[in-house]
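Re: that chain you flagged

S.,

Sorry for the slow reply, it's been a week of failed gels. I finally had a moment to sit down with the sequence you sent. For the record, here it is as I used it:
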Amino acid sequence: MWTLIVAIVVGFIAGLIARAIHPGNDKSGFIVTTLLGIAGSLLATYGGRLLGLYDENSAAGFIASVIGALIILFIYNMVTKKSRV
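Prediction finished late last night. Pasting the structure tokens below so you have them in one place:
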């Protein structure tokens, strides 16, 4: 349970950094960015466990969480741009 809480807190910060790194003018707000960051952190944590990079009781690191958040943010922008057209 503690691992999930750590992944959420790190994801919150990673989402803010991923939003700052990602180019373009996004219209998504603070809450959407935070949720995308948390999803990216969870993606990095559970994807890393699936690939054998992390133990069962460990969370992804900060850099991996930022990369996961960037991946989720990229996918989110691809989906929302198709729906705007």
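What I noticed first: Residues 1-84 form one domain.

Talk soon,
D.
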